[in-house]
Design goal:
Rib-P_diPkinase, Rossmann fold, elongated, alpha/beta, seven-stranded mixed beta sheet, 2 domains, about 270 residues, six-stranded mixed beta sheet, PRTase_dom, single chain, ATP binding
Length: about 270
């Protein structure tokens, strides 16, 4: 999905699958903001069409990427394609005046994108959610791995817990998970913070360990949440997780354990 100056860009498909962009020109202004939500690879073609028309109009244009596609493929692995690099090169070729990436999976994204800046709304949401849940000094902010800890290291919370996990390099499955830093007082509330949730195996593993250590309530705050979470175990009735707080950057399905938080992009750009 693409928004131009807060208005949806309307598209249709011809029978052979080609894209038609409809009723577009009235959306153009002198200073334009494109908000890009990736759902499938065809959305990149739509972004190409939108930017090329704006170039023809000779107007200024900035891009907000709600979730950077291919951001998990952020390093060169022997025999595999470095797809984040290629997608970043494609976006660079469109020559936006400024690119904002909401909660990139790693610093590699902004290193590869020209004129780019990372936005971390989770850091703004966290104190509000903690206040809503009645957190006290005995409760804990939890980072499920070293990547999350590095991403939010400037959050300024003293009572943090950090997990370390080991994945099988062939299957990608988590083989081991331990609490590397911090402690969990008996009866403490915990909120796990990260950028992205897929099926939720990492968070389920962390939540189960926290529960065993004596946590009373466990929550998840994650900026991006894939639809795959709906078919995983994280939201099951027997899950130790009370609720997920997330944005609509990747999904908007209603679920009793999901609470959506709106990203007010005007606060950041």
């Amino acid at each position: 999905m693409i928004l131009l100056n807060k208005q949806p860009v309307i598209t249709e498909q011809f029978p052979n699958g080609e894209t038609k962009v409809k009723d577009f020109d009235h959306l153009i202004s002198a200073d334009n903001l494109v908000q890009f939500t990736y759902q499938e690879d065809g959305d990149l073609i739509k972004l190409l069409f939108v930017k090329k028309r704006l170039d023809e109009a000779e107007v200024r244009c900035r891009l907000v990427i709600n979730y950077m596609p291919y951001s998990r493929m952020d390093r060169k692995i022997e025999g595999d394609l470095f797809t984040l690099n290629y997608v970043s090169q494609f976006i660079n070729s469109l020559a936006f005046d400024q690119v904002y990436v909401i909660e990139p999976h790693s610093a590699k994204t902004t290193q590869l994108l020209n004129n780019s800046e990372a936005i971390y709304p989770a850091l703004d949401w966290l104190p509000r959610v903690m206040a809503e849940l009645g957190f006290t000094d005995q409760d804990r902010v939890v980072f499920p791995d070293k990547g999350a800890a590095a991403r939010y290291e400037g959050a300024g919370y003293a009572n943090c817990c950090v997990f370390d996990k080991t994945r099988n390099p062939q299957t990608g499955r988590i083989e081991n998970m331990i609490l590397k830093q911090g402690n969990v007082p008996i009866g403490a509330k915990c909120i796990i913070v990260d950028d992205l949730c897929s099926a939720g195996g990492t968070f389920l593993g962390a939540a189960e360990i926290l529960k065993e250590m004596g946590a009373s309530e466990i929550y998840l705050l994650v900026t991006h949440c894939e639809r795959r979470v709906l078919s995983g175990k994280l939201l099951n009735e027997g899950s130790p997780l009370e609720k997920i707080f997330t944005s609509t950057s990747m999904m908007n399905e209603v679920h009793p354990k999901i609470e959506y938080i709106t990203i007010n992009i005007e606060d950041y750009v």
